[in-house]
Amino acid sequence: MTKNITNFKKILVPLDGSKYSERALSRACEVQKAFDSKIILLYVVEKSFPINLLDRKEYLEMLQKFGERTLKKANEMVLKKGITPKTLLKKGNIVTEIEKVAKNEKCDLIIVGNKGLGAVTRLLLGSVSNKLAQTSSCSLMIVK
Amino acid sequence: MTKNITNFKKILVPLDGSKYSERALSRACEVQKAFDSKIILLYVVEKSFPINLLDRKEYLEMLQKFGERTLKKANEMVLKKGITPKTLLKKGNIVTEIEKVAKNEKCDLIIVGNKGLGAVTRLLLGSVSNKLAQTSSCSLMIVK
C-alpha cells in the first residue's frame, strides 16, 4: 500500500528532555512503523545560551550530561518498540544544528514537540519549532 | 502493525490552490493510506482581506468560485487514490476557520504547505502555517 512512497524515509527527532519531546517521539515511532522510516534522535547542547562566563564550562558539562541521559532514555524507549535509532549529540545553536543534521543526514521529516519545559536546559522547543517552521528546508511536524 | 494507533485518524488539509497545498495534499494522502485516516479538504474564502469596499462583493464571489474549483480539483485527485474526502468551503479569517473546523471535526492533524503562491487569493499560506504552529491545539505538519 505504501510501496511507492519516497517520503518519511528518515525522521529527525530533536529532544530536549521535556514531556513534549517525548510525545513527539511517540508520534515519530508511529510514523516510523507506518513508513518503515529510519529515526535519528538528536540532542543539541545549546552553546549560545547567555550565561556568566565563569559558570559556562560547568553549565555546558551539565547540559552535556543531561543530553546524554535524554538520548539514552529515548534510545531505550525506541528500542523497546523494535526500532533501532541513530543517536546524535551536537553542540551549538539548536536551530542551526537541527537544520545541519537534517541536511547532512538527508532527513525528509523533522518531528518536534509544541513546546519544551526544559527546567534544566531552559530552552523553549516551542520557539525552536516556530523558527524551524520558517527556515527549515525539510518538512516539519509539530506535535501538540 | 498500526492497530493501536489512535492518532492521525482525521486529517485536515487547508487548500489555497497553490502547488504548495497540492504537495501537502499528496503527503496527506500518504498518511491517510498508512493510518487509514479520514480526510477533510477545506477552502477558506478570506473575508478579512483588505480590499476596496466597492469591489468587495465581486472579489468575494471570485474567491468563492476559485475555492469551489480548488476543492473540486482536489476532491478528484483524492478520489483517484481511492480516498473519499469530505470537502468544506468556509468564509472568514483563514486561521480562525481552520482552527474552528479542526476543533468541530475533531481532527488530530492539520497538513499544510510551506507557503502559497495564491496569485488569485494573494494569501500566503506560509504565514498561515506559522500562525497555526503557534496557536493551533492540533498537531501540524508543514510540508516543504
Give a concise summary.
Two copies of one chain form a homodimer. Chain A is of the alpha/beta class and 144 residues long. Helices cover 47% and strands 22% of the residues of chain A.
Give a structural overview.
The structure is a homodimer of 144-residue chains. The first copy, chain A, is 47% helix and 22% strand. Chain A is an alpha/beta fold and 144 residues long. Chain A has a single domain, classed as Rossmann fold (3-Layer(aba) Sandwich). In chain A, strands 3-2-1-4-5 form a five-stranded parallel beta sheet, with helices on both faces. In chain A, strand 4, helix 4 and strand 5 form a beta-alpha-beta unit. The two termini of chain A are 28 Å apart. The interface between A and B is medium-sized, with 24 and 24 residues.
